[in-house]
Amino acid sequence: MNTAIEEAKKCLDCLRRQKDELVERGIAVEESNPEGCILFIGINPSFKDGDPVPGSPKYSSTYKLDVPKEEIHPYFRKCIEIAESDGIGLPFGHHDLFPVRESKQSVIESMFDIDGKGRLISKHDFEQFIEESLSWSQKTICECDPKMIVVVNAFASRILFDYSLLGFIQGKQWTEDLGVDFVKINGKMVPITFSGMLSGQRALDNQSVFRLRWHIRHILKHQDLWPRL
């Protein structure tokens, strides 16, 4: 299912007064996600000095996920290994909650405050950007109709727990037998599990990745224990 590219650009335009330098970098979002995939969710695409920006010959607002393994970005390799492993065997998909290109996660974190109950809320100057971005993400997630969701960023996990804009998260249901949450998407119950990063300096160690892979396989194997609508 194709990602709504023009909507992603509109999300970024909401930052023009506050963070114009981010707007000038353009977006970098997945071109599409396969339906029925195991969908890995991150926080935002990275950006480093020298990366192409709008107006430069090598700039592209999208990237493909269905490319030969030797061409895939290293960030996605561990996700693909999990998706294609024995007992899982699902198409691989990926989506970032925000289309901002920035390697410092603190830039995204600085757009939020904490309310009196310790939950995340958007700062006033970034409220429109956050609302537009999460609404765009909700649409993207629902349209690819994932078989399972794996959130691979701790702050993204917190947003999905604390922030109310992603409507399907409000129906989150914990299942003790499988040790996983379920959310209602397109009239179906979909398992969603929360993890740390799979690559980079803060990546999970090998044994934690092994346990994550086992847990995903266990959840998919025991669909008889999934909650009914």
* Weakly predicted, low-confidence segments: none
CATH architecture: 3-Layer(aba) Sandwich
The proportion of residues in beta strands is: 15-25%
Q: Which range best describes the helical content: under 10%, 10-25%, 25-40%, 40-55%, 55-70% or over 70%? A: 25-40%
How far apart, in Å, are the first and last alpha carbons? 25 Å
Spell out the helices and strands N to C.
HHEEEHEHEEHEHEEEH
The CATH class label is Alpha Beta
What general outline do the C-alpha atoms trace? globular
Given helix and strand content, the structural type is alpha/beta
Textual characterization of the structure:
The protein has 229 residues and is an alpha/beta fold. It has a single domain (5-225), classed as Uracil-DNA Glycosylase, subunit E (3-Layer(aba) Sandwich). The protein is built from seven helices and ten strands. The strands form three sheets. It has a six-stranded mixed sheet with strand order 4-2-7-10-9-8, sandwiched between helices. A two-stranded parallel ribbon has the order 1-3. Strands 5-6 form a two-stranded antiparallel sheet. A hairpin with a 5-residue loop joins strand 5 and strand 6 (120-122). The protein is globular, with a radius of gyration of 17 Å.
